[in-house]
Design goal:
The protein is mainly alpha-helical. Helices cover 63% and strands 8% of the residues. It contains 4 helices and 3 strands; from the N terminus they run αααβββα.
Length: 145
């Protein structure tokens, strides 16, 4: 029979006693670092999202201000449809084609646009808001205008 010596048994016991705490410390460190890395990635992503949202909000505020200025010009308020279309086309060029199209919706609900024929828009939510005096930008994901 193969018997281990007392010295070998003691050494094996010391090694096992040392490995278990080291294993627990390694697993604990791994979990802690993993959580910290995930939290850091979340914070970085959130910061980028907030920055992008802020830039988008600023861009939209500028566009709303431009629309408000255009709406208050004499050509848009008192001009003919042809004069309005010429003005809107000049604004498209001046702005470097920031807009896909610019148009005007008459109080009767019919729209004249720089990119197509006159179309009825009296039932659209942006038209109803505009009739109440609110500066409105149409939803870019739903191309009614």
């Amino acid at each position: 029979m193969n018997k281990m010596s007392l010295r070998t048994k003691g050494l094996l016991l010391i090694v096992l006693i040392s490995i278990i705490p080291l294993l627990l410390a390694g697993v604990s460190n791994y979990m802690t670092v993993r959580e910290q890395m995930i939290d850091s990635a979340k914070e970085k992503t959130m910061s980028r999202l907030q920055s992008g949202a802020s830039q988008l909000a600023s861009w939209l505020a500028i566009r709303r201000a431009e629309v408000l200025v255009m709406s208050r010009t004499d050509v848009v308020r008192f001009g003919t449809d042809e004069e309005r279309l010429r003005y809107f086309n000049r604004e498209l060029v001046r702005s470097g084609f920031t807009y896909h199209a610019i148009g005007f919706v008459h109080p009767n609900g019919f729209a004249i646009r720089t990119n197509g024929p006159t179309i009825p828009m009296g039932g659209q939510s942006f038209f109803l808001d505009a009739i109440e005096g609110k500066v409105t930008v149409t939803d870019p994901m739903i191309p009614f205008f």
